[in-house]
Amino acid sequence: MKLNQLFTKQVLKINASNDSLKVTVFRRILILLALSFISPSFINGATITSLSSGNWRDVSTWDLARTPENGDIIIIDASHTITMLTNNSSCNGAPDTHLYIRGTLTFSNGSKLWLGCGSSVTIEVGGLLDGGSGGGSSKKLYICDNEQWNSSDPDVPGFYVFGKPLPIALMDFSAKVGDNYILLEWITAAEENNDYFELLRSNNGVNYEVIGQVDGSGTINNTVIYNFEDLNPLEGLAYYKLRQTDYDGKSESFDPIAVKNTNEIVGPCILSVYPNPCRGNCKVKLSNCPEGVNRIKLMVTDATGLLVNECIEIKKFDGSFDIQLDKSNDLKPGIYLISVLAGRESYSEKLIIQ
Questions:
Q1: pLDDT tens digits, residue range 238-255?
Q2: Where are the domains of the chain?
Q3: Which residue, 12, 110, 120, 180, has most beta carbons within 10 Å?
């Protein structure tokens, strides 16, 4: 089997209207790349991510308290080595599965990975498909009952794709409130025949209108970062949705996000949310608040604007407010908005739960 490695430069699309905003966006990109955090949490289907190195069948290896199933979007995180144990006996009737390898996938003797006909295995830059030792050519990868690779073939470093990847692998879609504008940003990991994106806005989460369009990148297999400015944002809570259209006219819509645009006074306190991304146990801290701020209200909302949790916190002896967040707060993997009210002052920060 001939394996051709594909090396492409990262494509960056920034349509910011001023240099300072470009710098802000570029810094955010560097942080994202440094954290190596890109999660396809907006793609239809369950997304399951490795928590540590281990066996494929070990529940503790994965973040959803179960092992991967056909039909999932599966992420093997960087620095993790997952040992494959045969996941199925045939590809017949198996739903489409999309596996992203950022660490290493290796195989035990005779093990096989059987995936449905519309599935894909993407070995990202820095990732590796490793045949392991022993077993000859008995360790294999099948898509639609067709052998794609076996352990007598060379190991496969990234970037390489087996099968048919998702037309658009949307990794993140977020909004940031600026002075008289809303900055919308989204990240794709791969695109196929992508003509353009449309940005839609709603005041109730039901009825949407198109407010802008951004060209797509056609067919590409590396990370692309886009943004769009809503220069006439709605006051209060608004919902934004992303719709993608192929060259042949087929379109796909992704889950909406909610953003609150208010004239609330922003005060001098410092809000810290860490670690971020968070793997289940993280802390919210408000410090350096002025005298007279003795209690705060914390609210956690999900990407659709739904209130997930709220609490009241009393000032500690050192003058700060510390709140622990964990899975007991109903925080499942996804993107959340942490909002803190301290008197007439308000603070907010995006939190990513892995």
A1: 889 999 998 888 888 887
A2: 44-163, 169-261, 270-353
A3: 120
